[in-house]
Amino acid sequence: MPVGLFRVCLLVITAIVNHPLFFPKENGTVPENTEEIIQKMKEREESLRLEQLRLEQEIADQEATQKALEKAAVVVEESKEEKVRWDMWTALSMVIFLLIELWRQDFQEGNWQDIGGEEDDMAVLGKAFKGVAFPDKAVLASFYEKRILGTTGDMARMREMVEGFADDLLEALRSVCNRDADMEVEDCMGVGSMYENWRVRKPFVCDLIVPFAPPEPYCFRCQTWCSGDSFPPDEQGYGTIKVCRADEDATGCICDKTKLGEDMLCLLHSQVSSTRPSSEMEDLLCFKNTQYLDADQVMKWFQIAVTKAWNRISHKYEFDLSFSLLDSPGALKIKFKSGKSIAFNLTPVVQYENSDVYFISHFPRSSLAADIPSSTHWFLTFAVYERRFIQLVSKTLPANACHVSCLQILSFLHGKQCSLTGPSGLTNYHLKTVLLHLLQARPSQDWAPEKLEARLQDMLKFLERCLHEKKLYHFFIGNGKVPAELGFPIIFQRAEPLNLFRPFVLRRDIYRKMVDTFHEMLRNMSALINEYTVHIPLAHTNGIRKE
Questions:
Q1: Which residues form the signal peptide (predicted)?
Q2: Quick check: is 482 in a domain?
Q3: Phi, psi dihedral angles at 210 (to 5 degrees)
Q4: Which of 29, 148, 448, 520 has the fewest Cβ atoms surrounding its Cβ within 10 A?
Q5: 362 with 345: CB under 8 angstroms?
Q6: Secondary structure (H, E, C), 216-239
Q7: In 3D, which of 215, 212, 219 has the Cα closest to residue 295?
């Protein structure tokens, strides 16, 4: 702006100096053409006025530009301050998120499937219990004695008979198999409710698992979802089994991952050992054109082998053996001439490393549960450790502890309700998982026989909360408090907890059915129990309540 004023003043001074009237020449006279001079002066004045207007416009434009630049500078400064504030909020949010994540992990380690150890917390019934008439101690004791205790002897006799026959059948199976080409079958093991003594509903079914291994020089290399490689969420709890040569590197040679030229040869593997015909892998029960063990192929091989073994020893027995269920390949049934029958499951499994965790080919579960991703994905079962944990804890509990009784009663009620309203996503394994969590959370004295009613209420309330939150964690996976005496693999203790209710989160219809079945079971509980309970005099019942 000062430069513009200086230019205007300079122009005016120049005009004044050059004006002929102010500085006339000496001895000069006024020219005669005055009008012409005046006209030129007017034209000059008009041009100066236009120049002045142009200069003023330039000055105004410069002032506007200056203001715009100042305003832009202010906006930029404000944006910088806003960005700094936003960066601070972002950093603060990240810190809060990390603190929450650390707290969550500590919470899971310190409060595994939090039960609520205080008696006052468990004394408050949930919404589902409002208006529910819960059976008292006398009614529960009478029901348990009449309906459940009588089946214990039958289970023991059935287990002994099935185990003896299964051992004989597997010995015959080994004799009919080719030791150089077929899988090697080991001795069977009993798992599940029949061997944990809490099975209550008939027909009784024994669950036996049969470990097997490949013939020499092959071996199994197992890979689980928590071994480091990424598995999709729907494949958690599963693993794959790769059939390899015993002398083969677990990571594999680079010649298996790259295409070598015709004139190039791997120095570690000869052409004979590196190329495996697809027929050879299929003979080893692998999925087509892969080295991964196929569960469907294994079950077909096992069924054929069992059939051959039975044909060899059938003359020794006075009963028939057949496969009872098409959708359960390991389901067998013994049929006596009298018309009676005994059912049992004989399922091949693969041992995970040197532990008692097993990959099971076909895991018995509800038809409403999520499907197996593929036949090369094997479900992991921890049934052996579950049985050992119950046996270990039972040694520390009072005599005639009520933990098994609670599970038996709840399993009976659930089974009866499902027979009335149809099956739901809730299974006996979920009920067993609830008991395992409570056994770990509650002190030993809380499982005294006289506390049956209180512990049964605890199981129902815990299950109600799990249904409400859609979270029931697997007892062993992610549980850092597993007793060291069990020798449980550390890799599964350090894994992320596995939510058994995860398949129902996105399947709202099944979840709704499961919740409705639970509520119906609560409402019908007294009627179901009274149906199998002898009449108890009112005075006797009141006397027990007063105690």
A1: 1-20
A2: yes
A3: -125, 105
A4: 29
A5: no
A6: CCEEEEEEECCCCCCCCHHHCCEE
A7: 212
The answer to the question of residue 514 being in a domain is yes
Percentage helix, strand, coil for the chain under 3-state DSSP, each rounded to 5 = 55, 10, 35
Got the DSSP string for 254-289?
GGGTS---TT---SSS-HHHH---HHHHHHTTBPTT
Report CA-CA distances (Å) from 64 to 30, 55, 56, 77, 468: 48, 14, 12, 20, 66
Contact 343, 205 (CB under 8 A): yes
Residue type, 460: L
- End-to-end alpha carbon distance in the chain: 104
Q: Cα 352 to chain center, whole Å?
A: 20
Contact 364, 465 (CB under 8 A): no
Dihedral, 437, 189, 428, 499 alpha carbons, nearest 10: 50
pTM attached to this predicted model: 0.72
CATH number, domain containing residue 126: 3.30.460.90
Rounded alpha-carbon distances, angstroms, from residue 43 to 11, 38, 39, 341: 15, 9, 6, 129
Range of the domain at 469: 122-227+235-246+281-534
More confident residue, 201 or 408: 408
Lowest-pLDDT range, 55-64, 121-130, 424-433, 462-471?
Answer: 121-130
Residue 427 CB: number of other CB atoms within 10 A?
20
pLDDT at residue 134 tops 70? yes
Please check whether residue 511 lies inside any domain of the structure.
Answer: yes
Q: Which two tokens stand for residue 68?
A: 């715009």
219 phi and psi angles, rounded to 5 deg: -150, 165
**What span, in angstroms and rounded, lies between the C-alpha atoms of 521 and 515?**
10
CA distances from 313 to 195, 230, 303, 308 (A): 27, 47, 16, 9
Residue type, 89: W
